[in-house]
Hints:
By secondary structure, the chain is mostly helical. The protein is about 45% helix and about 10% strand.
Amino acid sequence: MAQAGVVLDRDQFNCSICLEVLKHPVTIPCGHSYCLHCIQNYWDQDDFRGVFVCPQCRQSFSPRPVLARNTMLDDVVDKFKKTSLHNASTPENNQSFAEADDAECDVCTGRKNKAVKSCLVCLASYCELHVQPHFESAAFKKHKLVSANKRLQETICARHDKLLEVYCRSDRRFICYLCLTDEHKGHDTVLVEEETQNMQRQLGDIKQRSQTKIQKREKEAQELRLSIMFFSRSARATAEKADAIFTELIRSMELKHFEVRELIKAQEKTAIREAEQLLEKIQKEIVELKKSDTELDQLALIEDPVHFLQSCQSLQAPPALSASPLLSTNPGGSFDPVMAAVADFKELLHEVSEVGFASIFEKVREVQIIGPQNPPVQSDGETGSAAQTDPPVAALPFGLDQTSANPLNPFLIPGPIAPMFSLSPLGSRLSSGTRHRHVQRRPHPRRK
């Protein structure tokens, strides 16, 4: 029951991200605590989104909360670590049986305990209980203890039964001191510890270069995230501005449509009013001419000469006719020229829209996040063969298939396939095609 209580207390002080005991604990606004480094790395991955989430309760925060060290929790964790180390230092509390992958104690009988130390002089491994004489007895003071090694027998020379303490660079083998006077005499040899230090220095240099590459890639990734965010914002803002411009154009065309209709109606009223006034004048002249014609008919019926002559003297001359009006040669289709002008205006707008949209389309295609880059420069310490072992380039299509007419862009004529770009592991863009930039105008007859 006591052991279960210790495990429970230990879980309470574990970070839910790294699953280790809290280091420099900080508490976020929702109340959960994490290691300072763990929560910073976790939130750095979502920095470009601007929304930061708790890994446990998934509560989101915006903007990013300021992290402050929880001093009270830090003190409690330090006391817990000291208590755990004190309990672990007691041999009775630290005994455990050896598992399949553990080194076994060579002194234990029956079921063997897990070995914690191996002696390079005794060539044996000991558990926590049986290794105590090496710390307490003066006879074992000169023995060299190392961490328990399950493969301890592999560090012993099979020929001389001595510890392998020398490394032969000529044969690239581990040997003992007796081998130096035998088959490895005159070879380039060095102590294992010295060769280990040399190899560690080389590995340290490799790790430093690797860390430099990681930092460079992380910086590029961060810049790419920012570019994506700014690119999306610019695209949305441009789309909104384009909507406003096209809405204004549509309203302008609707206003011109209304003005043309009102102009036609006004011209219709003016022409009809003038024609009706002329028609009324002509009708009056017809009435007067008919009246004069009736008087002549009546005069022709008089048989008395004297009365006839007297009536002729009182006869008035027929009214003079006004100038004849100039009528349209095609009264039924007098607005045909207007229709022709409207059709020409339509064709002109269509031609301008084709050229303008083609220009807009090309400008949109030229806006990119990833531009052309120079080929990667081979860094120092990397051979040509290593550079050739990079993974194959992953092809990513960024172009449009223009082998057939595009319903979203009817101004592109059929042509070669659009370019297919590919990204190499270092981010350089490769082109495997050419871009077709020709715009075809659809011919139409121009009215004169």
